[in-house]
Design goal:
Shape: elongated
InterPro entries: ParD-like
Number of helices: 4
Protein name: ParD-like family protein
Radius of gyration: 14 Å
Pfam families: ParD_like (PF11903)
Helix content: over 70%
Number of strands: 0
Number of domains: 1
Strand content: under 5%
Order of helices and strands: HHHH
Length: 82
């Protein structure tokens, strides 16, 4: 675990979003980082596909980058076949 320095504006956005979504500020920041990381790794997935991917990963035991990427690749392949 470490400290991440962010701007005051981003901290305010986190504070507002975390309150609105009933998450801690840290949980909201981690959520945004997870979504952003997956969006960069898999630009073909939209937000809703990323959320479904995160839910499937949680059902499978939690967020593990390697297995999550495998799930995303499988989801992409299925989407390409449709």
């Amino acid at each position: 675990m470490g400290i991440v320095k962010i701007s005051e504006d981003m901290h305010e956005n986190l504070r507002i979003s975390s309150s609105a979504l009933s998450r801690s500020i840290n949980a909201q920041a981690e959520h945004w980082m997870r979504i952003g990381m997956l969006a960069e790794l898999h630009p073909n997935l939209d937000h809703s596909a990323i959320c479904r991917l995160l839910i499937r990963a949680e059902q499978a035991g939690g967020l593990d980058l390697q297995s999550l990427c495998a799930l995303a690749d499988a989801s992409s392949a299925l989407g390409a076949e449709a």
